[in-house]
Every structure is written in structure tokens, then in C-alpha cells.
Amino acid sequence: MDVILAARNHYETLKHLWADGGYAGRCELTVQEATGCTLEIVRRSGDAPREVWLEGNQDAPVSKGFKVVKWRWIIERTFGWLGRYRRLSKDCEQSTASSLAWVRLALAAILLHRFGEI
Q1: What are phi and psi of 41, to 5 degrees?
Q2: What superkingdom heads the lineage (predicted)?
């Protein structure tokens, strides 16, 4: 919650956030009350929404095959890019400030590399 509050204080125009299915439930309400931001839970394609009621012996719906999930692919792609940098492939930093600095350096390197291709 501290990270969300810090982001909200730094970026006052922040209105809508996306989160993994693990944050569903009480977290949605807490974020709404504390920051005024809406928190949208982006579920994996195999996850059934919690609002589905099943009758008797009915099985939960399961998707077949690969499906692109709205917004989730952006995060997964970015993690893939960052995972190519050896320093970021292991979680070994002592402080979050140091970790954030290395992430910013990696993203700057990615941008510089892309500008070189133009």
C-alpha cells in the first residue's frame, strides 16, 4: 500500500491501476478508500471470475489454449526485457532505491538500443 500511496502523491493524475488476481478482494476496497484510485484486477485467461455461481455438479469454466489477456502482456513483455540484464535476473539488491536505479538503467539501455535501430 505504501508504494501505491507514494505513486499517487508523485503522480496526482493517477486514477486507474491494474493488479494481478492475487490482489482481488479487500485490497481493491482499501486502495479505493485510501487513494481514490480504482483498482482493476487482470485475471489470467484460465481464471474464472469470482462472480460465477455454479449449480450442483457443474465444473468451473476453463479456457482452452493461449489467450492474450488485456494489459497483462505489456507487463510480461517488460519483465522479459528486464530479465535479459544479468543484474536484474536475481533479486540481490539491499534496498529498493538501488533496485529501482538498476531497473531505470536497464530501461534506458533498452531505449538507447531501440533508438540506434531507427
Answers
A1: -85, 120
A2: Bacteria
Query: Residues 43, 44, 50, CA angle at the centre, nearest 5°?
Result: 45
| 49: in domain | no
Domains identified in the chain, total number:
2
- The Cα angle at residue 42 between residues 86 and 1, in degrees rounded to 5: 70
pLDDT in tens, 47-72: 555 555 667 777 766 666 666 777 77
- Domain of 80 in residue numbering reads as 65-118
pLDDT tens, position by position, 6-27: 888 888 898 988 887 777 778 8
How many Å apart are CA 113 and CA 115, to the nearest integer? 6
Give the separation between CA 44 and CA 69, rounded to whole angstroms: 7
